[in-house]
Amino acid sequence: MSAAKPVFPRTVTNLDQAATEEAQQRDGTATRAFSNIQITTSDGRCLFVDKLSGDFRENLTPVQIAACGSTDGQGWDIITAGEHINTANSMLLVNTLTQACLNFDSRRAAGNQVILFSCGGRADGGGTATTSQAFSFNGTAGPISFKPENAAGSCLTSLGDVVDVADCDFSDPNQVFAFGGAAAATATSDASAQTSSVLSAIPSVRSSATTFTALFMFATTTSTAGSEEATITATASTSTSASVPPQSASLSTAAAIAIPTTAVSVGRGGNFDLTAALEANLRDANATKAFTNVEIRAPNGQCLFVDPTAGDFRENLIPVSLVDCSGTPNEKWDVITAGQHNDAENAALIVSSLTNGCISFDGRRSANDTVNLFSCGGRADGYQLMPFTGALSFAFSPTGENGAVCILPGDGRLISGTSYSTHAKPSGSQNPASDLSDTSVPVPAYNRHSITVSTTAVDRGAKPSDMAEAPSSASQTARQSGWNTMSPTSPGVPEMRRRATRTVTFRNVDDFAGYAGRPGWQPGSEPGIDTTKPDGGRETLAHMKAPSDITVVDFSQSDMSTTRLDNSSLAGFLAIPQAANMKCRWINVNGLSWDVIQILGNHKKLHRLAIEDLMNTRNRTKADWYPTHTYLVLVLLKLVHTDGAQKQEEGDNDGNDGEDDGKSWISKGSSRWRRKVSETLKTLFGEPGEGYDVADSPVAVPAKVLENGQQLRLQRSTSTATKLLHINEFRTLQRYRASPNDARTEFMESHSVLSSQKLAVAAEQVSVFITDDNTVISFFELSAEDVEEPILNRLVVPDTTLRRSCDASMLAQAILDAIIDLAIPLTVCYGDVIADLELDVLTRPSVSHTKSLYITITEVNKVLSFINPIMNLINTLRDHKTEGVGPDDMQDPRKGVIISPTTYVYLADVLDHCVLITEALEQVKGQAENMISLIFNTISAYQNESMKQLTIVTIIFLPLTFLTGYFGQNFDGFSDLKRGIPFFWEIAGPVIFFTIIIMMRQMIMESLATLVQRHHIGNLRKHHRKHKHRT
C-alpha cells in the first residue's frame, strides 16, 4: 500500500518484540461481530494506526484518519464477547495490525485522549475488562456513534486527520462512523458485479434445466443512537428464465395468525391438535443461533410467512407464503447453526420462531408443493440444511441436493426449481458467473432493499467457528457491501438420487432434564468448563449468578490480615499483588456464583474439569491432582433447627411467658388434632391458588420445585436461569441428591425421626483447591461461616500450629477437620432418637415403629455414604506426603502442591474423628435393625401364645360341643333325655378329661419334664449357695 504521511510523528524506531507479544495478545475465543473490516467516517475516509507512533510495545498509539486503502493498520475486529468484555450491548474496537484496543483516557491531555492500549487495560497484557475500552454497540454495521462507557455524554469525533472526543451531538456528521463501508455516506455498486460475486460461490451443476438463482436476506428493525434507525443499503440480483412460475401481479398482505388452542379445521384436512403440535415441534433450547426472530425477505421485498392452520393437524406440511412485510410473528425466523438437529459445518436450519418447524424440501411431493414447514429433524439429513457462511443474504439450496435444486419465490409461496446450467460450454469451465454471461439470459437487477438489523437478531453466544473467519475472494467482495451467499457445501454432480428412508421404530429420549444431574447436560458434551469464555462454553452458566460473601485471609507468622469482599470487588482485589511478607492465603467463598468462579478460575488457572466438578453439586467425594493445584470435593453435614421449631418457640414465648393458658388438656389435644388434620389436607391438596410458574416468576420458588428442575406448566421452552436458582438453597439430607420422585422425598422428610424434635440434617457440597503457590480456595453453598469462624479464631492467635506453619495443606486440614466436627452432633442426636425408640419397642412394640426405624436406617446409610469416602480422601492426601520441604518452599510453584509432614500427622486426627462417627452410626444402624427383628419376633410370639390359648379352649369345648349336639337330637323314644342334667356331666367329665390327655399329651409331658428339670436346677443352686456360705 502507498504510505500516507502520518499526523503524529513516529516516536520509536523499533519495537521490543518480547514486550509487544506480552502486551498485545489476541483473544482467540472472542465473539466477533465483524472481522478485519474498515471503520469509515462520514466523508468516506478510514481510521488507521501507525504502530511506531506509540511506545516500545505498541501502546499509547494515536488513532488517525486517512484515505481508505492508503495505509496499513486500517483493519479492525469488533468484539462483542470475550476475555476483555463482559457486558451486553457493548463492543471492543481491536486493531488487527497491533491487536490493541481503542481506549479513551480522560486523564491524558486534550487532543491525545483517544489511543490504542493493551486490551484489558494493563500494559503487561494481564488485564480482564475495563470500561475505558468498551463502547456502545447496536448490532448494525452503521451508522453508529462511538460512545465510551467510562464517559457518559461523550462521543468520538473525527477532527481533521485524527480521532478526538466531544460532547455527543447526533446531528454532527463528524461523530458518525460505519463498519466495512456500509456507511454514513451511501455507497453504490454495480449490479452485475454483485451478481457475479454472489454466484461465483455456488458450484456448477450440469443439466438441461434453465437458469434461476434467487437471493434472500435477513432483516429486523431496531432503534440506534438517538431515535434514528440504522439502515444498510445493498443491491441483490436475480437471474431467471421464462420457465420460472410468474410472480403475483399484486403483493398480498397477511394479518397475524396465532397458534390455535381449539380444534379448528386445518388446510391439509382434519382438525388442529395442540398436544400433537407441541410434541412434533419442540424448541431446541440449547441450539446456537446466528440470527434470532428476524424477517427473511425475498428479492422482490416480500417476507416469508407461515400460517399455523395451513398444514396438517400437528403444524407440519405448512406452505411457506410470501406476503408484504408487516412485522407479524408469522414472519419471524431463527437461523440455527448448531444444535440437536444440526451438526454440519457451514450449514443452518431455517426455523419458524412461531411454530418451531423447519423449512424442508421434499422432492417426492407435487411440483408446487415441495417446500413446506416440517418438524426439525423429521427429514433425511441435508433436506432441511441450507449452506450458511454468516452473512445477511443467502441463496436457498438444500445441501442434500448438492446444488441441483434451489428454493425459489413462486406465485405467493416458496417453490423449488433447478439451479443454473450451462449451454455448450467447454467441460473445463467451472465459473458459473462466466457461464451465465455466455448464455444470453437476461440478468435483471432488483431494486435496492433497506435492511435494518437488530442487536437481538444476532446470537452473541454463537461460536466463532460458526461464522466464516476466512471467506473466499468472491464472498469477501460481497461481505464488504454487507452481502454474501449461501452456497452448497459439497461439489456438484450431474444427478443426485434421494436415499431411501424408513420410519424410526423407537424414539430416543431427547430431553435429559429429568435424568441428568446437571442443567443443560447432553450426552457427548465437551467435558469441563472454560472460565476464559464469558459463559464457560455453556449458555446456562451465564444465568447462574447469586450474591457471594468472600473472605480473603493473608497470614504469616508475624502478621495477619482479613478482607471482606463481594462479587463486584473481588476482581479489583485480586489485581493487587499479595504482600511480600504474607506467606499463605485463604480465599473462602460462601455462595456459588458463576462470575466469582470465573474470576478465581482465571486468576489461579484452575483446570476446566475441576471447575465442572465444582459447578456440579451432585459430585462424589474425591481428590484430583492437576499440574498447578489439587482439587478436593466432599459433603458437609450439620444439624440444624427447622423453621417449625423457631415458629413454635416464638409462639410459646408470645404473650404468656411460659404460663399455662388455662385450656384443658382435652382442648389442647383437640386443637393439635385439628392442626394436624389441616396440615395433612394442605399436604395432599395444596394451599388455595398454589402453583409455580418457574419460567415466569423472577423470585425464588420453593426448593422442592427447583431441586429437580420440575416444570409445572406446559411451555415450549423453559428458562434455564430459574433452573439454577436452587444451587445455593438449603437442602435436607433426604432432599440432597434425591431422586426425581418428589413424593418419596417429601414423605421420607416429613416422617423423619428428627422432625419430631424439630431438627433436620442439612447437606451441601464443599470444594477446596490447594494451589502450588500456598493458597487455599474453598467454596461453600451456605455454611462457610460455620467453618470460617473457628479457623479464624485459631489464626488470630500467633502461637497456634496453624498460624506458625503458614502451610496451605495445614489450612486445608483445618477445613476438613471443621467439616467432620460439624457431623459429630449427628451421632449424638441419632443415638438419642434410637434410645427413645428402643424404650417404646421394649415396653410396647408396634408395627408402626418399624416405619420410623426404616427411615432412620436410610438416613444413617446416607450419612455413612458421605462420611466413608472422606476417609479415602484423607488417606489419599496422606499418600501424597512431601518430604524434605522447608518454609521457603511453600510458595515455590516449582515444588508443586505440598502436603507437609505436619499435615500428614494432623490428618490422622481427622481420620480418627471419621472412624468414631462411622462406628457410632454403625452401632445406631445395628440397633435399629435388631429392633426391627425384635418387633416382628415379639409380635410373632404374642400371636403364637394367642393361638396356643385358643387351641386349649377349643380342645376343652370340643367334647362339650359334641355331647351337646348328641343330646340335642329330636328323636322319639330318646330315653337318655329323661335322666336329666347330672347324667350329661357324668358323660361329659370323663370325655373332656381323656380328650385333653390325648390331644395335649405332648405338651403335658414337656411341661412335666420342664418342671422336674427346674426342680433339679433349683436344688443344685441351693446346694451351691450353702457350700459358698460355708466357705
UniProtKB/TrEMBL annotation:
InterPro entries: CorA_cytoplasmic_dom (IPR045861), CorA_TM1_TM2 (IPR045863), MgTranspt_CorA/ZnTranspt_ZntB (IPR002523), Ricin_B-like_lectins (IPR035992). This is Mg2+ transporter protein. Gene3D superfamilies: 2.80.10.50, CorA soluble domain-like, Magnesium transport protein CorA, transmembrane region. Residues 418-440, 472-490 have a biased composition (Polar residues). GO terms for cellular component: plasma membrane. One of its GO terms (molecular function) is magnesium ion transmembrane transporter activity. Residues 651-660 have a biased composition (Acidic residues). Pfam families: CorA. It is found in: Cell membrane. Keywords: Cell membrane, Membrane, Transmembrane, Transmembrane helix, Transport. Coiled coil: none annotated. The chain crosses the membrane at residues 950-968, 980-1000. Belongs to the CorA metal ion transporter (MIT) (TC 1.A.35) family. Residues 418-496, 647-667 are annotated as: Disordered. It is a multi-pass membrane protein. The keyword Transport applies.
